Amino acid sequence: RKNFRPLRTVVAWRGRAEWDQVMVGLYCGDSRLQQEALDRISAWKSRYGPKMPLAVDCTAELIRCKVLDSSDRLKSHELILSYGLALVRFVNLITERKQKMVSIPLRQLAREVDIPIWVVDLRHELTHGKLPRLALCRRGCDVVLDWLRKTYWNRQLGNSLCEESEDEEEEQEGMEASAGMDNVAWE
Questions:
Q1: Three-state DSSP state, 154
Q2: Where is the composition biased (Acidic residues) (predicted)?
Q3: Which structural domain range is residue 59 located in?
Q4: How high is the pLDDT of residue 13?
Q5: What span, in angstroms and rounded, lies between the C-alpha atoms of 137 and 84?
Q6: What are 18-49's pLDDT values in tens digits?
Q7: Quick check: is 46 in a domain?
Q8: Residues 44 and 56: beta-carbon distance below 8 Å
Q9: In this predicted structure, what is the pLDDT of residue 27?
């Protein structure tokens, strides 16, 4: 009989504790801790290269925008471009994996992965139209970060660190409804 060892997956992070610490740092709201988490992700990227999970990369880009925004170092126009690039990359990269040989509309792909349609419309406007207001870019960033937290980060943690209460979920739904972020609102 041969001794079979379970297959090991090589990852860029040292262990579960480092992964958890980075996730908490990214979503804590403290720009100093967020920057530390971003620095850690940069180290992961240097080790892991193109194998870096797409959701980690997108989260880092969006958090980097929030850190720059809170630093007051960039002008409004520069922040719009920064948020815009991160949002365009997010929509393109997330939906790209669902594309088949036949081109499928982004709105349909977004529905399949539960990304709000107005985020796809925002991406379209950023790419092909007039630049939107900074407030809308910030809101898009917050919605996408929440989507990433729920669909990627929480699943990696097994929902142990960041389960939302029903009250928080209802509050989030109410905020989205009151923000009026349908297809026409941001134009």
A1: helix
A2: 163-174
A3: 54-159
A4: 77
A5: 7
A6: 888 999 999 999 999 999 999 999 999 988 88
A7: no
A8: yes
A9: 95
